[in-house]
Amino acid sequence: DQQVKQNSPSLSVQEGRISILNCDYTNSMFDYFLWYKKYPAEGPTFLISISSIKDKNEDGRFTVFLNKSAKHLSLHIVPSQPGDSAVYFCAASDERAQKLVFGQGTRLTINP
Amino acid sequence: ETGVTQSPTHLIKTRGQQVTLRCSSQSGHNTVSWYQQALGQGPQFIFQYYREEENGRGNFPPRFSGLQFPNYSSELNVNALELDDSALYLCASSLGGFTTGELFFGEGSRLTVL
Q: Residue A12: what are its φ and ψ, rounded to 5°?
């Protein structure tokens, strides 16, 4: 039972353009959502988060949008830079179970 | 500030053996979580330790066990290894139990079971 899904295994974007990564979830009890970024041979690092009481959170080039009615969130990166090439994981916080539930990840490649 | 460190980084075991993975949490953090990341998948929650007690567990069999020590470092033990246990094992630390879920991850221990 995959409660958090990232349906695009990979995404290729030209440098300077916008990257949009998508994530869907099924459990309406999730109340906090996070994006992590992972480079090869490194652990995931926290990127940005959003509470379910908000619909948008912005941090520099990164913006996360949450659509609760559709159970969908997205991460926008603009402008995209070569250093953004990494695997991005969407995660939902299940506070009752004391855990994060991760999606499968999307590999983002930024082309010069 | 010292980050999360894990050892060993790579290891190979055979089916039926036992393995112990180690994690030192980030300085000042008293909560450690363990996740398993199979190839092509996202990390899956194994369990969490807070102040030396397990306070959350995912859908993993009892042969996956853990410990947290007074200095908040932690061990993950897996008995009777199976081929499907081959994965990257990630340790993450945080402060004050499970809060908003902003975890600090180590680089992982890659386990191969033959």
A: -120, 130
